[in-house]
Each structure stands twice: as C-alpha cells, then as structure tokens.
Write a structure and sequence with these properties.
With about 475 residues, the chain is mainly beta. The chain folds into 3 domains: about 100 residues, no CATH class; about 180 residues, no CATH class; about 160 residues, Sandwich (Jelly Rolls), CATH 2.60.120.230. It contains 5 helices and 26 strands. Helix 2 crosses helix 5 and helix 4 runs antiparallel to helix 5.
C-alpha cells in the first residue's frame, strides 16, 4: 500500500517540525562594506601617499567626503589595475615597496562602489595618518631650496646643470633624500649627486650643451645629447636671462644618484640601516630638465634630507661609483645606436651587458626610458651559470618612473642582461608620430633605455675618510 501526502499536509508537517525546535538554515545577510571599516585602511596603505594635498594625485582621498565622489572612478582604476601604479610581474623577484592591491582589496573597493559607497561609523575607522607638513613624504632634518626657475610656455629645454654648496659643514651620513618640485607638471626630471668641490665649479650658474635640432625637435646629430661633454657650451647666471655661448667642455656635470621623476619622489635607506656619506665641503650638482606645457610657470624645487646621529651599518654606492671612481659594475651598452623604424610595434633595443666587480647587495632597480618603451627585463646569471629573471616589467609606463626596491645579494663575477622593447606604431597611444624613425636622445619624443641600479656595501668597506 502506498502513502500519499498532499501539499497542504507537507506544509503542516514542516510547521510542526519547526515548532518542535528542528534546526533551520540561517539566511546570510550580506556584509555592508563601509568607508571607515573597510575602505579607509586600503586607502591609507596604498593611495594616500600620492592622493593628498600637495602630492601628485589629482584628488585627495584622506576623508569620506573627499573619496565619495570618486567611488566609481576608484572601482574602474583598480579593476583595470591602473591604480596604484605598479608594473613588476609578480612571477619574478620580491619588492618591498610593492603597492599593488590584493584580490580581496580590489573586491572590497568594487563592492563599496557598487553598493552605494556607504560611509559607516567613523568610530570604526583607523586614526588619520599624520603626514609630514608642507607636502613632504618624509619629514626632513635639513632642507635645501633650489633657485626659482622660470619655465617658458613653449620651446625645447635641454638638460641644465647647476652647482650649489651642500649644507653640511662637517662629514655627514644622510639616510634619506626627497626632491619636492614646486611645479611637477613641467618637471621631466630633477636629479643630483654630491661631489667634492672643484676650483672649476662655479656656483649659481646654469650650464648646458647646445644640441642642434630639426623642426620637430629631434637632434640632428645622434652623437650629441645628454652625454655630450664637449661642443658649444651655454651658461646663464641664476636670476639672469642673458645666455653666453662658447666652444669647449662642460665644467658642471650633475648625476642621477638621487632623482625626482613622476612616481619617484624619494630614496630612504633607514629601513636597511644604510646611508650616504657626504664629506665636509661637498657640492650638490643638479641636473634638471623641464618640459614646457603651454603655460609659463616658476618652479621652486626643494630637497630634504634626514641625517644619521651615528654612522649606519651600510653605505649606498651608485652604479657608476662615487664621483665616477671605484664603480661596482662595468657596463657595455650600445644604446646610442638605438634606431627604431617607423610603425615597428615590438622593437628590441640594444641590450645592456653588466658585470659585477664585487660582492654587492642590490637594493633597487630604476629602469628609465621614454614614450615608445613598452617593457624591460633584467636577467641575472650567477658565476655558477644559474640564471634568474630578477625584474620583469611587461607594461612599462613612461608616466610612472617607478623604483623597484629589493634586497638581492649578488656575488662578484655575476652578469646582468637587460632588454628594453619599444612600440613605434599607431597602437601606442603615447606615440607622437609613428611615421618617424626614433633615435637615442634626451627629449621625451626621442628614446633611451637606462638600466639604473643601486647598491649597498658594508660601511667597513668605506675609505678611511668616510669611516669617521
């Protein structure tokens, strides 16, 4: 005999079971994503260093009131991984300044935007970060104000050099350097190095080389440009508009030991207990490059330093050595032969071959190129033949000249192979003219491929004068 239960009977059974305490499935209520509880920590850790007053970000994200109108834009930027800017391939290397968001953080920002960008309770929020005053990322102990510089509305500005006395009256260990431009929209780069004062070095005089250019601003002579040291030299005193021309050699040559570039505001050696030794009586030799943007401006760049009270354990060494001496590497790189054909969309530039002359701690990569560059890769070969890709940037972006900070021990005799690729086709949205050949040069519409690196050595490896 079969048993049949009607629909109404089944409902009665379920009702009785429920009344008798039969366990029920709980209905999950969706988590409410709010600014203070969920979004603010992400912005503090990954965004506010740039997105606050006086920094490169176009809007401030310090508060709910400031962030709320940008909720949809934030969603789009993080889904496309345009923000925060970070271009290193995660398959290779380890970088301690990686600002890329985790998948869960992206999901949180997207959910916040999709569900109405709720504010939440301010009591759930972390305390505001106490950022340094006056636009600094690192509060400096010592500040140097560079002379005010008038940037014209139009024209081509060559790289200019300027020497000023360093502010340190005795031997000093500096532990961080920050360059704060007054008008970042026209500062292509602002770099400097320290060097011992030379009798030939004049203070407060801008000096640069004449570079003959065609009507498109391209150098007529590919052997001339940023690395040229002899030819027609131009000089102009600070505060004057009078330019003097004479044949000869440059007497002032700034370096790129420390730089401001878009996305690169400072170098900080404090986390690794390191510093840069600056002998008493040194000069700061600046190398500056301005790009007019149609509006006349006056730039007032400042340089901030933190200073060690006691000598740190390690000393920073640039790849070209200190004042061009005792270089830790030797480099072969025919980048001056760079010649990218019109409409070429995947051009491999001349590779850099670098040999390490001593045991080193590599602490940062700073690849530099211009508008046509699309990728860069550093491949290390150890003395035993083992190969390792230590940095791969598959989507290089000229607008964000990032430093990739790492800690990599490299034994003497190792070799680094560095390749840049370029897109001179119409598919490159930054390409000013795909129909032109592109050659090596120092202007943004010309090209480069500089495999910059920075190193640390033990302070005990310093010279006698820098041990003090």
């Amino acid at each position: 005999m079969s048993t049949r239960i009607s629909v109404s009977g089944l409902a009665i059974v379920l009702l009785l079971l429920t009344a008798s305490g039969w366990p029920q499935a709980k209905e999950e209520s969706p988590q409410v994503v709010t600014f203070y509880k969920n979004v603010l920590p992400i912005l503090q850790n990954n965004c506010q260093s740039c997105h606050r007053p006086g920094q490169i970000g176009p809007m401030s994200l310090l508060s709910y009131k400031e962030a709320r109108p940008w909720a949809k834009a934030i969603k789009a930027a993080v889904l496309l991984k345009k923000m925060p800017p970070w271009f290193a391939d995660p398959q290779y290397g380890h970088f301690n300044n990686d600002r890329s968001l985790k998948p869960a953080e992206i999901e949180t920002l997207v959910a916040w935007a999709d569900k109405g960008a709720a504010e939440g309770d301010s009591k759930d929020g972390a305390a505001p970060i106490q950022w340094p005053a006056d636009g600094w990322q690192i509060q400096p102990d010592v500040i140097v104000d560079a002379p005010a510089y008038r940037v014209p509305a139009r024209g081509v500005k060559e790289w200019e050099q300027l020497a000023v006395p360093a502010p340190f009256k005795e031997d000093t260990w500096i532990t961080s350097v920050e360059i704060l431009p007054g008008q970042p929209s026209v500062v292509h780069h602002y770099c400097f190095n320290f060097e011992k004062h030379k009798p030939t070095t004049a203070y407060n005089v801008y000096e640069w080389m004449e570079v003959p250019r065609d009507e498109d601003g391209v150098s007529k002579n590919r052997s001339r440009g940023v690395d040229t040291k002899e030819g027609i030299v131009l000089r102009r005193e600070v505060g004057s508009t009078e330019e003097r021309r004479y044949p000869g050699r440059q007497t002032i040559r700034g370096g790129n030991e420390f730089c401001y570039l878009p996305g690169l505001p400072y170098e900080d050696y404090r986390p690794v207990n390191a510093g840069v030794f600056v002998p008493a009586g040194s000069d700061i030799v600046l190398s500056m490059h301005y790009t007019p943007n149609g509006v006349e401006m006056t730039d007032r760049t400042r340089i901030g330093f933190t200073v060690a009270k006691t000598p740190p354990a390690k000393r920073f060494v640039p790849q070209d050595g200190e004042e061009g001496e005792n270089a830790p590497i030797v480099k072969q790189h025919a980048i001056r032969d760079l010649a990218i054909p019109p409409y070429e969309n995947n051009y491999l530039g001349p590779a850099a071959e670098i040999t390490f002359l001593k045991d080193l701690d590599l602490v940062w990569f700073r690849p530099h190129a211009h508008m046509r560059a699309t990728s860069v890769q550093y491949k290390l070969t150890y003395p035993d033949g083992r190969e390792e890709i230590v940095l791969n940037v598959p989507h290089y972006d000229f607008n964000w000249q990032l430093t990739y900070r790492t800690s990599l021990k490299i034994p003497k005799g190792s070799r680094m192979h560095v390749e840049f690729r370029y897109d001179n086709s119409a598919n490159n949205k930054y390409n000013p003219d795909p129909s032109k050949w592109v050659y090596y040069g120092d202007q943004s519409w010309e090209e480069m491929g500089s495999p910059n690196m920075g190193f640390l050595v033990s302070r005990d490896a310093a010279t006698d004068s820098s041990r003090r």
